[in-house]
Amino acid sequence: MGDVVQVVTTTDSEESALRLMQNAVGRRLVACGQVDGPVTSAYWWDSAVETSIEWRLTLKTTAARVGELRTWLVEQHPYDVPEVLATPVTDGNPDYLAWVRSEVG
């Protein structure tokens, strides 16, 4: 089953997350996505602890397309160093996983 991958990123606004999600789906880089938020994040940046409100974007794709999706997200993302984490799906509804595979072009 490990050929389906869930990719997560965060961004600075709901609008940005929606734009990234809709464009990724439209390009068939992903089968679907969800936007969650707001979430509060804390992180080191420029030698200081920063805290910000962000929106989490979760995308479903295949292992074959995850590299292309990562490259595209980094190019389109408003952050200098965007979080792009890919986690293989090791279990799930077989019908849903088949749907993800069929929808990713």
UniProtKB/TrEMBL annotation:
Belongs to the CutA family. PANTHER family: DIVALENT CATION TOLERANCE CUTA-RELATED, FI09726P. This is Divalent-cation tolerance protein CutA. It comes from Isoptericola haloaureus.
